[in-house]
Amino acid sequence: MGMKRRALSGGAAARAADREVLVARPVRRARKAVAELVGGLRTAFGSVLVLCLLMLAVVTVPLGLGPAAGRGVLHLLHGLARAERRRLSRLGTFLREPDPPPTRLRSAPADATTRREVAWLLWNASGGLLLGLLGLWLPVAAVRDLLFPLLWLVLPDGATSTSLGLGTAHTWVDAVAVVPLGVGWAVIVLGLTPGMARLQARPARRLLTADPHADLSLRVAELTATRAAALDAHAAELRRIERSLHDGTQNRMVGVAVLIGAARRMLARDAEGADEVLERAQAAAEQALAELRAVSRSILPPVLADRGLTGALSGLGANCPVPCRIEADVPQRCAASVEATAYFVVAEALTNVAKHSGAHRVSVVVRARHGWLRLRVEDDGRGGADAAAGSGLAGVRDRVAAHDGTLTLSSPPGGPTVLEVVLPCGS
Known about the structure:
12 helices; alpha+beta; single chain
């Protein structure tokens, strides 16, 4: 009977796993892709407007209005590109900001960043707009055709049956015949929209990020500064470990040795007293062992190796005194040092929230996309956090800089406090 129950439970688990793979996961991917495609329509329509203004500025050159109109179009172009970078960054694709492009017409044609933004503008006003409109129309068409037998009751006579504008339903049979078309649209939405979203965003990822070969001297200076920050963070970590071992564990072990020596001397004349001293020595040894475990966990938490970054962050959220929501989407393991840095960033942020913010809730969102790991910690506390005020965030900034990452803190008085960290997550 027990074997039968186990077989049934195993079959139920297998069916649940099949439903996850065949239904739930494609639906989640399609829903996210449709949201990305529709979200790209804002910059796509903006691209059409800027492209029209650009052509208008070229046409008005003989009238003497070209320079003034051209400067305005350049400002709009750069602003639109920044908006697209922010949109993709919110979706998990971190785009490194290029150097500020020129706003003078004479300098713009020779500027690589401006030329790349114009190339992206041409794509976004054509292919990006088309993909966004398809991403909006396909789900509407699928729902419309799937529900057409119900809509047919309220539609006026002579209304077209399908979302393509073809055919007219005169009977129930004609109305039900539209449903397979809706199923086809739903299959297209599930199967093609993720690829459409990637295709819509790919030119922006390639053209709007900073040129990796531009201004190598600045890049060398940045790497020199991050190396110095890494060395300082390493030295500070060694000092912390040394203090923890010297002030805590070493003193405990000295106490254990003293208690054992006293017990040995008392053993012959006072066995009961020696037993009490040995109990105290055992308690001190257990405390020393606990402190030693805490120090070892602070070096590299074993939970990262056992459960990965997602499981480790779930443990941090469960132990946080403030109600904490963890949302992690890390499909693959990152480098061990990157995972450790992400873990300590979240741990330090949650500690600061519990100690200083007075918040009622906190959320942690972690996503890995296209070689970058993005963390966002947000609380509804009183705000006013300052990375330079000795709250532990300065050390977090050094850890992040050691990996060539970025840290952004927004904490106006009254809140909310938002800490965002971006780390390269190469293996």
